[in-house]
Task: inverse folding
């Protein structure tokens, strides 16, 4: 028991430092290349913070624990919206860009419904995995071209500044970029290791007091693998990096469904628990849709964030009671 408590504490420390380095490095890289922090949050930060979900789900699928493999993804997506958006919005009201309402949030909803339709036959086979992975590649290609467009606009601004006689320290900027890339990689590594230690310790503590593995998979494992997103979101909120907060949540949810479910089912077909189809997955879709009306106001207030957090806690309570 003592060793598990130590794992939990070390994991928390790793998540704190990893989230701090990831947010700082990603935001500085975005500024250096003229790429918006929203796109960085939707891609690099989202994929980095989704690494624990990928490791846990692939490992669970290979062990034959299909319920944990899929439940981890579904539970993590619910936690990303309810817990993370709730906590970060309570820390500081979150400003939502109009482009999220027009593009990214609808994409997340469509991806959630598409994944649900694939689950209805009770299995995720390799063909389903290929379709999901193709969707993930297409999503990232879209943002790759958007990032290139923003970089071109940034270069044009630099040329205009140079024409006006403003000197830019190119060598120093290049050295800073290398430093920030290293910071991002180190931050992701700390997040992955921290989440793994925390999940391992918390799961063993839960088993020792008699909590079932199914409940652990939907709640504690999903919560643990969402901790990188939580750590990143809290630190980003404290630094007033709203685009990283929202972009990380939406990008992580899309990555969880397309990349993680796609990769795990491509490696090994996954049998789906009917209960996940009938309840948890529908709750996940409802949480995704629930973001849209609040985001239309362009700001998520503390009261609205408290509603998200309360909804998540109600879901966790129901899961334990049921």
Result:
């Amino acid at each position: 028991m003592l060793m598990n408590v130590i794992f939990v504490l070390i994991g928390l420390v790793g998540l704190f430092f990893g989230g701090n380095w990831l947010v700082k490095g990603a935001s500085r890289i975005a500024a250096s290349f003229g790429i918006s922090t929203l796109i960085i949050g939707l891609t690099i930060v989202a994929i980095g913070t989704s690494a624990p979900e990928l490791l846990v789900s692939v490992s669970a699928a290979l062990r034959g624990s299909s319920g944990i493999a899929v439940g981890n993804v579904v539970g993590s997506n619910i936690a990303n919206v309810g817990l993370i958006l709730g906590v970060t919005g309570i820390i500081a009201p979150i400003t939502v860009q109009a482009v999220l309402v027009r593009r990214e949030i609808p994409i997340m909803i469509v991806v959630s419904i598409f994944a649900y339709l694939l689950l209805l036959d009770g299995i995720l086979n390799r063909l389903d995995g290929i379709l999901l992975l193709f969707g993930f590649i297409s999503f990232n290609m879209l943002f790759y071209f958007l990032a290139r467009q923003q970089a071109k606009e940034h270069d044009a601004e630099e040329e205009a500044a140079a024409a006006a006689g403003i000197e830019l320290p190119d060598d120093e900027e290049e050295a800073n970029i290398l430093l920030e890339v290293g910071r991002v990689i180190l931050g992701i590594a700390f997040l992955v290791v921290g989440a793994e230690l925390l999940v391992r310790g918390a799961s063993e503590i839960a088993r020792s007091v008699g909590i079932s593995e199914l409940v652990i998979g939907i709640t504690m494992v999903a919560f643990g693998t969402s901790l990188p997103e939580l750590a990143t979101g809290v630190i980003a909120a404290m630094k007033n990096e709203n685009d990283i907060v929202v972009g990380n949540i939406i990008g992580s949810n899309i990555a969880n469904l397309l990349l993680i479910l796609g990769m795990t089912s491509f490696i090994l077909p996954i049998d789906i628990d009917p209960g996940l189809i009938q309840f948890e997955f529908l709750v996940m879709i409802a949480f995704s849709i629930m973001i849209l009306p609040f985001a239309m106001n362009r700001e998520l207030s503390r009261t609205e964030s408290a509603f998200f957090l309360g909804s998540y806690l109600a879901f966790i309570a129901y899961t334990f009671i049921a």
In short: Residues 168-175 have pLDDT under 50 and may be disordered.
